[in-house]
Design goal:
homodimer; alpha+beta; 27 helices; globular
Chain lengths: 721, 721
């Protein structure tokens, strides 16, 4: 070997090719970074400038955020397309027992027929700029990490407040790569958003939870909204005087489809990834976080199922929470299985070893970075001594609204004594108003028996914490007892608590919300009593957690900086809800030996999966039309079939839902709506052979619009006539 | 249309193409029928005569029966290759706690090391001829169907007895197409068969029950035996003086492999198919037989699982029966799902309609056949009034050895009063001796508690029979009661029975076997008492069943004859355990939209499936060698991989297990060992797009022999050096 560095690089390349740092397909790129990617050589057929430029925004400015989902303008009249599951809330809020739009679907045949969404906002990105200097202003070396962190947060608040002086603007300062640099994003917030069109959920949610995260998929996961502004063109509260918003850019639809290997792009707002975890950080997830969740979900879900099976009323109340738990369990299992499949632990260890060698190879690197990883390790070792206990308490509050609201009531009784600006995050006057609203809404699904059983389970889980993490408030309920006997005493304890509290009623909760700390302290309410004890026990840990946050926030940017030095270039920042472009290719995969997945599904699969029962029900009209096969110009010319969904190697995650999938000419060919099961672990590692994004084919959407729903008005508006 | 018949044929072809009567891939052909198939045009590269001819037997004479399995000679020294699951019993009988050959595998490095199989026989077909005339001798028109049937059976017995005067010959008269014609098969019965080589079951049974009937598959399902004869070359009882049998023909092994679409053949002994059922017959299966079995298995298996979970000892005793029930359930579900997938009911109805039109189209056909289908229908309508009851009783005896042996004891006390020649089938002196042996063997797995619970379930199932089929003996246990109360009384009844019988002990059963009818009648044994009542109640139904058999046996040949007239040629007879050849092609399939199954699996899948736990355990040496990838000349030249199993469109069923898979030159390229899940229904309809046979690649076998087990002696003997 002539060159040792080259040798190491090659070895690493072989070790991690197509995984940790590979750039083909992997990467959620910031818009001002696209020129570096040499996209034309990757397959892009239009100038990179057309995707984004500071002058007219480029094609990417047609892509908007719904806050948690992505979407895009598809007409000059503010028509927006997104996923069905992104429009779900808006559809649900317009549904009644008599007219269930989720079941029936909805189509407005004119602007007048469009429905209010009651709370959906559209965020149109206007500008972004690096504000790192402002954010770090006043941060001094001699400050403690906690003080530095507080200063940074204060600066960020100032920047946001200033930007939001314009009432139409929604501002956010995003920390890139754990605080390496900071970017201020300013968006137009459009508050009058209306429901235009949605298929019935037997199309839009076909396959339901069973097909969730699965391929092959046959879901028509799309819906249409429209953005409205005041007659002056500026965002306005919902009003019948408002007029359709005129976006600067909207997407053009292509019915050309795709072939295996075709270049594609997604622009959207991916939520969260953790691709650069050091071994110490990763071990927290691998050794505690995911195994604990898996164990908890398994036992908790069994309890929910038992309760649902025995009581029809509880079954209805718990249905949505149950679905959410099932989804979380599947996600957790997916990450866990992915860790195993990718041998991520071994990869991390091997990679970090090479990384450390690199740091040690040069004096200036050594001096700058050699302490970073050991310090992170020390921090995480300490973190592990109290994080599990806190995390368990978090879930205990989620699993029992009685427990959750009591904890909030206790915390609020303390915070309300402070000036608003000094309160903990989440306790501003606005936050409290929202919490009360949520309380009212969620109380509808309250099932006391379920919460009692859940609490008993979390007591059990608390006993299973390691010796140094036991929760005293729980341990002292049945001291000295174990097993069945302890469970009996604890069950009695919980029954007593629920019999002697007003937290089991909505009125009771709301009244307690207004109580002072003094009043709570002398209250006889058993649940408040228990919550006071829990909060008191957790308080020192909350302080420890703040210190940990401050310290880790100081180390992480250094760690990423060193990683970048090692990789000899910039690393795309982990997803953080900011606008990104990712590119990839249409491609199937082989999930296991002798099994090949095509990169597209067809209407054949709908007939195969159809059972007549949710989630595999389908409108009869759809089944008939599929059999008639009159797919017209929406049929794929190569396969002579109607494509339903397709697969790409695009690098996406939660938040990308509803993103437009673009072809090499920047035209809309589909909507991203899910990832395959094997892609779940991509939040931690992009495992190229297995990671796929699932998209609905825009031609299937158009065909449904034409053939099933007669949405000719919209087809015309999109220029599809 | 110029020709109406052609038009109808074309319509039918379009309706049933690739299904009911399609001949490509479908068909289990008799050896003397091969010339009609024009095999060279289908892909055969050797003269058809080389496959079978009356002179030297041809290649097919290397294929032998093991009685329930197929196998083939692969050396001039009587070396036989078959499936691991076909050699299973022989391996098991040589296993001890100390030396478990199932787990360790076994290889004899010389003739001396070969092990006795304790009961495995090899049947080498010597000749076959049509004996229809002799079988029908003395059958008169004026006889009742029952009398005719009795005469036929008598004639068959005579023919067999005569043939078996030569003590080395095993003879059988097979009824073709429900008695259209009869063929006498004479085979050499070789009684000294030894175990030569078997891989550990972690290879030979890799995937176990989970992978049973599934693709993709990775099972090394093979074992080697050797046939021995006396020094005079004639079959002899096992003895150390015996010498290896010299077969006339043995198969030559090819390591050339196959490509997608390659011509292949299987020669073997398929057990049973029912491809030509009329609508009335089919309805019996679709409306009663399979739904009843599905319901019964679901509830019965739940009971077994409950029992196994609560008692470790019972768990061991029930393991094998449980596996068998799971397999039966999967088979039953597979047929049931297949009926639905193929819309077989609709197909049958449409086809029969066309068939009836054909019969009605010509006077001579009408006169000859028009009554056949209506008569079959009448018979089956009557059959349905008592068949369910009898079938339930059959399963009751299977599910409880206490009940089963009591029923046999009662029946035998009656039969033993007759001359041997007049007794019912199954009650000859030899049969009784065998029954006693089986009783001893099976008693080891007796679990009284399980049998009590099973009986209670079958009482429940009896109550669910339609009103006209209620079993009086059971109904009168708790007259007037229903639900829980009835169950309690019946449980008490069963407990009492089991407390007051000697049928729960082996000694007791064997003693009762020797009791006279008179002694039984006055016995106080509660189970015998119950069995006497059941047998008495069933007796008239047994007589009805005999009449039904006689009548249906007279109609069925006519029905098939008419079918043949309709199809304008001969129909291959349903499988009946006689030697057949089937040909097809190497081919994958698409089980559902967007999923493609390759036609071969590779060692990659073993690594993927490996869990370290049965049934996905693998020898460490195998895992290592797979990673080393030193597959040498056994690697597939086209894919550059080691193939493990492969798929063909060959038409096979139970009994074909162990059959050699031959290439277009008649060389051995694999062993057939299973069908895919979708092929299960092929016992009723050959659904071409989905029906596949699963074969182990002979190159995987050879590689294991060379690399893992060092079976060079056998490789050399097979000419592989």
């Amino acid at each position: 070997m002539k060159n040792k560095t080259l040798f190491i690089s090659l070895t690493l390349f072989l070790l991690f090719a197509a995984s940790f740092f590979a750039l083909a397909d992997e990467g959620m790129f910031l818009l001002d970074n696209l020129q570096k990617l040499d996209l034309p050589s990757k397959g892009l057929l239009i100038p990179v400038n057309d995707l984004w430029n500071p002058q007219d925004g480029g094609i990417s400015s047609a892509v908007v955020s719904l806050g948690g989902c992505s979407a895009s303008f598809v007409s000059p009249n503010g028509l927006i397309v997104t996923n069905h599951h992104c429009g779900y809330g808006a559809i649900q809020r317009n549904s009644t027992k008599e007219k269930n739009l989720l079941e029936e679907g909805f189509l407005a045949r004119s602007l007048e027929e469009e429905l209010p969404t009651f709370g959906t906002n559209v965020y149109v990105l206007q500008s972004f700029k690096n504000v790192t200097e402002q954010v770090r202003k006043g941060v001094k070396k001699k400050m403690s990490p906690k003080e530095k962190q507080a200063m940074i947060e204060k600066n960020i608040n100032k920047i946001v407040q200033k930007a939001e002086e314009d009432k139409n603007v929604s501002a956010r300062v995003a920390s890139m790569n754990s605080g390496m640099w900071y970017v201020l994003y300013k968006s137009l917030r459009i508050k009058d958003v209306r429901l235009v069109y949605a298929p019935p959920q037997s199309i839009g949610k076909f396959g339901g939870d069973i097909d969730n995260f699965e391929w092959p998929r046959h879901t028509g996961d799309y819906s249409f909204l429209r953005a409205y502004v005041g007659p002056d063109g500026k965002p306005a509260a919902p009003s019948k005087d408002n007029v359709p918003y005129k976006p600067k850019k909207w997407l053009h639809v292509s019915t050309d489809g795709y072939a295996d290997g075709d270049f594609t792009m997604v622009i959207g707002f991916p939520g969260h990834t953790s691709r650069y975890l050091s071994v110490s950080e990763f071990n927290y997830y691998r050794n505690f976080y995911f195994p604990w969740r898996l164990n908890m979900f398994k036992r908790y879900i069994a309890l929910i199922e038992e309760r649902m099976a025995e009581n029809p009323d509880a079954s209805i109340k718990l249905a949505s929470w149950y679905a959410s738990m099932m989804n979380s369990q599947k996600y957790t299992q997916g990450v866990y299985d992915g860790f195993k499949r990718t041998h991520l632990s071994d990869q991390k260890i091997a990679m970090q070893k090479e990384f450390v060698s690199f740091i040690n190879s040069k004096k200036e690197l050594r001096e700058k970075y050699q302490d970073v990883l050991p310090q992170i390790d020390v921090l995480y070792k300490d973190y592990m001594t109290f994080a599990p206990k806190r995390y368990l308490y978090r879930w205990m509050r989620l699993a029992s609204s009685v427990m959750g609201s009591a904890a909030t009531i206790v915390k609020w009784s303390e915070e309300k004594q402070k000036k608003e600006i000094d309160r903990e995050p989440g306790y501003s006057d606005n936050d409290i108003a929202r919490r009360k609203e949520r309380m009212k809404y969620s109380f509808r699904n309250f099932d006391a028996e379920m919460e009692k059983r859940a609490l008993l389970l979390f007591f059990e889980l608390a006993h299973e914490l390691s010796d140094n993490q036991k929760i005293e408030t729980i341990e002292k309920i049945a001291p000295g007892l174990t097993g069945k006997k302890r469970r009996e005493v604890e069950k009695q304890f919980i029954d007593n608590m629920f019999a002697n509290t007003t937290c089991t009623t909505l009125d009771g909760r709301l009244k307690l919300f207004d109580a002072s700390q003094k009043e709570l302290n002398k209250s006889n309410d058993a649940v408040i009593h228990f919550a006071l004890s829990m909060e008191k026990e957790m308080k020192p840990l909350d302080e420890k957690a703040k210190t940990f946050d401050g310290e880790i926030s100081e180390l992480q940017p250094k760690y990423i900086e060193a990683l970048m030095a090692w990789k000899g270039g910039s690393l795309y920042p982990d997803a953080n809800g900011t606008k990104r472009l990712t590119f990839g290719y249409v491609k199937g995969y082989s999930p296991r030996d002798a099994v090949e997945y095509d990169d597209y599904t067809t209407t054949r699969g709908i007939l195969e999966k159809y059972t007549g029962k949710d989630p595999f029900d389908s409108p009869q009209k759809l089944l008939q039309e599929i059999k008639v096969k009159d797919f017209g110009r929406f049929k794929d010319a190569r396969t002579d079939k109607m494509h339903v969904n397709f697969l790409t190697t695009l690098d996406t995650t939660g938040g990308n839902s509803g993103s437009p999938v673009l072809n090499a000419r920047g035209e809309l060919i589909g909507l991203l709506f899910d990832g395959n099961y094997e892609s779940i672990v991509a939040d931690y590692i992009f495992d190229k052979p297995f990671t796929r994004s699932i998209c609905v084919d825009i031609r299937y959407v158009l065909w449904l619009m034409q053939k099933i729903d007669g949405a000719d008005n919209l087809l015309q508006e999109m220029g599809m006539n």
